[in-house]
Structure formats: structure tokens, C-alpha cells
Design brief:
With 559 residues, this protein is of the alpha/beta class. It contains 20 helices and 23 strands. About 2% of the residues have low confidence.
């Protein structure tokens, strides 16, 4: 069964989504389904009825939501989702080629409204500022029934098609088989997409995936053994079902009917562009970033067992990741971090060969060619290879990330001089907080570094720093004469392989590998990261042991 979602060859599809993790992950985890990375605009955590309120002129604002709830006390991700119910970006659909819907919000949220009327909204009762006053002014409407959700979804599609004629709809099912909280609603809400598709033309339902066919991800994220997330293959089954039902033909009809004029949105631009506390990614001038998920990494710092060196790693988090992460001590920021972290989630990666075969063919073939060569991958001590490192650093004046930085042009003497004796590779004092360097070597008989004969020449290196659940590619460099042989590709993928199997990797809780941001270094470097398996994420760093202590100490010093 083919899964390819096709445009007309003229450019990337524009997709708007009134959906949550199912819609987002279906796009982000299946890039091969599209001829080009689609332009993706998403509004989350709102029911179909809430969207109809907006179309009827009932405006919900962050100011109002802040007035009734202690948003500052919410976990950062919850605050983003709570305030995100204001987002109406998906209503900007005149230029859209496809509308995506999923069933999570209608299944999950119990709505409230002022007793005097107005827009509907949802709350987290724990964070209400004044519960008594709130109950005096507002009434709970409850979750919409299946019948109401079908009616609301149908009406929303009709209203959006007034702006975007012939707009096809892809309706995906939010699988809740591993989310007991919604067990009482599964039977009826697994019918939602099917009923809307039966009622409204050109709506294509991805179907329900049987429980034993689900490929799980993020198990434990919704409680022990629970998850709402699945691997790309689960969503791909849904996409294939929609394509088989005629989705591509409907997209073609929309492209034929689509006006050539510049998009005119149905929300006032001033309102749409207002600063928002919803966690978002910064724009990227050369790529449409589709975010898989918000990540909240655990720094895994234990004051009772970690070392002083571990503490220094945690103390550096605020400075090192200031431009990349939403940091807890900067709560309330309305502009996203400058750079969007590029990461690999190691959880679904069980077999390295399968991982390599998931990469683009030219990239995969280059790695396999390097693997068959005489390249040697090993951890190393930089003191033993200073002349080789100097040669690598100075083998090219310009890299894919731009001109060589000044700290990489130090002389051999400035780098500590050529070795006079062999220095062992240091052992890791803590498996969860460390800095380690790995190198790619080629055998060279009699190869000397200063007074030390090594018999192998360093031609590429990578420095990796681990901060608990994630590790950062701090520096990666290959010799200019060996770049065409894929040596940088090789060293990056060998770290992935080692991270899956070595004691310092997944076995000790390593979850993510990070390689800078999407916006770092330009399009060439971004494409290299993407081909290497790195994807854009939003990262929120909550207070936790070590990081919290460091922030409070810094604030006390400033006071």
C-alpha cells in the first residue's frame, strides 16, 4: 500500500492542523511520505467548539487565562499547553492544501464558560487563583459528547472551506490504548473521525490501529507504563489508509481550485502576531521546522552520589543552553530561544544497522563505504594527538558552518605542545556527567606525534558532553583531505552506534543526542544534521537538583 502524499510538484504542501501530538508526530516522524518537507501550522489543546467560538467572534486571550490561574506555578509544559488553547494559527488557511484534525482535545478537555456567556475554555483546577470566586462566575459545561464533537468538527470544516474552497481533510485517530484516564471514552471516540468522514465530503479518516500493532514511544510519560505517543510507523499506517481512500486526488482538486492570490487570513494579523507564552520554536530562514515534541530532560544529578565535576556540568547548563532551551529561571519569556535544538531520540533506536538503513540512501552508502575502509573509531586523549588536531583544524579555512573560529587556529604550542609521552584516556568518573573525545584514525606505519610513535593518524574528532539524559556534540571536525570520504558523517554515526550499546550510553539512561541548533551554521550544516538523523525539538529545562541550586545561588549573588 502506497503512503506517499503528493502535491503538484510545484513546491511543498501547506498543512494546517487543529490537532495535538498525533497530527504533529504524523508529519515530523514520516518525512519520506512527502515529496518536500511541508509547511506546517498547528494549533493545539483546543476543541472544535472553541475554534467555532473564535469564528463567531468570541475571543479567548492569554490575559484572561492568566487572570484566573496561577500560570507561573504551573510546570512549563503545562503552562504552554494551557496558554496554547488561545492559539488560532490553524484558522489561517486560505493558502492551505490540507487540513489535519485529530480527536484528542475533544476527548480530553472539560470546558467552562462564564455564566454571562463568552468563549469556552479549559482549566487545571489545581492552579485556580480563587476557586470560590471562580465557581461563582463560571459554569462547567463538561466534555463534548460524541454527537456534539461530530457536529462541531463538521461545522468547522464547512466554515474553513468558505475561506479555502475544496480544502481536503485528513482526520487522524488519537490512540489512547495506553492512557487509562480516557478508557471510558475509547469506544465512542474511536468513531469520531469515521463519523465525520461519513458526513462531510473529502474527509479522509486514517482509521484505528489495533493495540497489538502500535509501536510505542515515550512509555511512562503519562504515568507508569502509559503513553500517548507512538513511533512513526504507527502514524504511517494511518496516512496510508487515508491515501488509499483518495486523499491525493482530493489534494489535487484543492490545488486546482486554490487561488493564486497572496493569502488573506481570517484572523486579524495584529492578533495573530501578538507575543505568546506558548512554547514555540524560532523561525528558520532556510527550512520549515516541524517540531516532534517538547522535551523536558532530566539532568540526573544526585547530590549524594555525584562528584564536584558533575556539579560543574550542571552549573554550566544555564550559560551553555541559554540560546537553545526554555530555562526555568527565565519563566515568562514570550520570544522563543534563538536556536531550535537538533536532537536524536535514542529510545526507539534498538539496532544500529536498522538505524543506518533509515537514513537517506546517499548518506547511508557513504557511511557503509567508510565502514568498509580502514577507518578506526576510538576514544582518545587529545594530549597524545596535538599535531594531528592542529592539522585538522587548519586543513580548511571555511567549513559548512562558516569561517573557522579563532579558538581553533591556536598553534601547537598554544595547544600544549607535541606529546613527549603517551597519556592514557581518562576513565569516566560518573557515567551520567562527562566530557569525552572520540576520533577517527587511519593506520600509518611509524606515525609520530612529537616523541610518541602511535602508528595511526587522527583525521577527524568529536567532543561529546553528557548532561544526564542528553549529550551534546560540542565540537566535530574532519580533515579537509578526507571530507569527501565521509569522515565527519562516519564519526557522527559511530557516536550514535556507541550511544546505543556502550555502558555510558542508553544502558545508563542516555536518551538524546544534541547537535547544536537548526539555525546554526546555515543550510548546509542543517541538511547534514537532518541527514544524520537529528530533528528539531523544543526543550524546556525545569528546575531540578543541581540546576535549581545553581540558579538560586546566582540570584542570591546578584541580590
Amino acid at each position: 500500500m502506497t503512503t506517499k502524499i503528493k502535491g503538484n510538484g510545484a513546491g511543498a504542501l501547506t498543512i494546517v492542523a487543529r490537532g495535538d501530538c498525533t497530527s504533529r508526530r504524523a508529519i515530523a516522524l514520516n518525512p519520506e511520505v512527502f515529496e518536500q518537507q511541508p509547511v506546517f501550522r498547528q494549533s493545539q489543546k483546543s476543541t472544535f467548539g472553541q475554534f467555532l467560538d473564535s469564528l463567531d467572534g468570541l475571543s479567548l486571550s492569554e490575559e484572561f487565562l492568566n487572570s484566573i490561574s496561577n500560570v507561573v506555578d504551573m510546570p512549563r509544559t503545562l503552562a504552554s499547553y494551557y496558554l496554547g488553547q488561545v492559539n488560532r494559527e490553524a484558522l489561517e488557511c486560505q493558502d492551505a492544501d490540507l487540513l489535519m484534525l485529530d480527536s484528542y482535545a475533544d476527548m480530553n478537555f472539560s470546558l467552562w464558560r462564564s455564566k454571562q456567556g463568552g468563549p469556552r475554555f479549559w482549566i487545571h483546577p489545581k492552579f485556580l487563583k480563587d476557586r470560590t470566586a471562580f465557581l461563582a462566575d463560571y459554569e462547567e459545561l463538561g466534555r463534548p459528547t460524541l454527537e456534539q464533537s461530530v457536529a462541531d468538527a463538521s461545522k468547522l470544516i464547512e466554515r474553513l472551506r468558505q475561506t479555502a474552497p475544496a480544502l481536503p481533510v485528513l482526520f487522524l485517530n488519537q490512540q489512547v490504548d495506553y492512557y487509562p484516564k480516557l478508557a471510558d471514552r475509547v469506544a465512542e471516540y474511536y468513531q469520531l473521525g469515521e463519523l465525520v468522514a461519513a458526513k462531510v465530503p473529502d474527509v479522509f479518516f486514517g482509521g484505528v490501529v489495533e493495540k497489538d500493532a502500535l509501536a510505542l514511544a515515550d512509555v511512562g510519560s503519562c504515568g507508569p507504563g502509559n503513553t500517548l505517543h507512538f513511533q512513526g510507523s504507527t502514524y504511517k499506517r494511518m496516512l496510508a489508509a487515508a491515501v488509499a481512500s483518495g486523499l491525493n486526488q482530493a489534494i489535487a482538486r484543492r490545488l486546482d481550485a486554490k487561488p493564486a492570490a497572496e493569502s488573506v487570513t481570517i484572523i486579524a494579523k495584529a492578533e495573530a502576531a501578538a507575543p505568546s507564552s506558548e512554547l514555540r520554536s524560532a523561525p528558520c530562514s532556510f527550512a520549515e521546522l516541524v517540531i516532534t515534541e517538547i522535551v523536558e530532560p532530566n539532568l540526573m544529578f544526585d547530590p549524594a552520589s555525584c562528584t564536584a565535576a558533575c556539579k560543574s556540568f550542571i552549573d554550566s547548563v544555564a550559560k551553555v543552553f541559554d540560546g537553545y532551551f526554555y530555562l526555568e529561571h527565565k519563566k515568562g519569556q514570550t520570544t522563543p530561544p534563538r536556536f531550535t535544538p537538533m536532537m536524536i531520540d535514542l529510545e526507539p533506536v534498538e539496532d544500529f544497522n536498522a538505524w543506518i538503513y533509515s537514513r537517506p540512501a546517499t548518506y547511508r552508502h557513504q557511511f557503509q563505504k567508510s565502514e568498509r575502509s580502514e577507518f578506526i573509531f576510538d576514544p582518545y586523549n587529545g594530549k597524545n594527538h596535538v599535531p594531528d588536531i592542529y592539522e585538522i583544524n587548519n586543513s580548511k579555512e571555511v567549513r559548512s558552518g562558516g569561517a573557522i573560529r579563532s579558538n581553533l587556529t591556536k598553534s601547537i604550542d598554544e595547544m600544549g605542545g607535541a606529546p613527549t609521552e603517551l597519556v592514557p584516556v581518562p576513565k569516566l568518573a560518573c557515567p551520567k556527567h562527562w566530557r569525552q573525545t572520540f576520533g577517527v584514525f587511519i593506520p600509518v606505519e611509524g606515525h609520530m606525534q612529537g616523541e610518541v610513535e602511535l602508528g595511526k593518524k587522527l583525521i577527524a574528532y568529536i567532543s561529546v558532553v553528557r548532561y544526564g539524559e542528553f549529550a551534546l556534540f560540542a565540537q566535530i571536525m574532519g580533515h579537509g583531505e578526507h571530507l569527501a570520504q565521509g569522515v565527519v558523517n562516519f564519526v557522527a554515526q559511530k557516536v550514535v552506534e556507541a550511544a546505543i550499546t556502550e555502558p555510558w550510553g542508553k544502558p545508563s539512561g542516555l536518551r538524546y543526542l544534541m547537535y547544536g541548533g537548526a539555525q546554526n551554521g546555515g543550510e548546509g550544516l542543517y541538511n547534514f544534521k537532518r541527514r544524520s538523523g537529528f530533528k528539531p525539538y523544543i526543550v524546556s529545562m525545569p528546575f531540578q537538583p543541581g540546576y535549581e541550586q545553581a540558579m538560586f545561588a546566582t540570584q542570591a549573588e546578584q541580590a
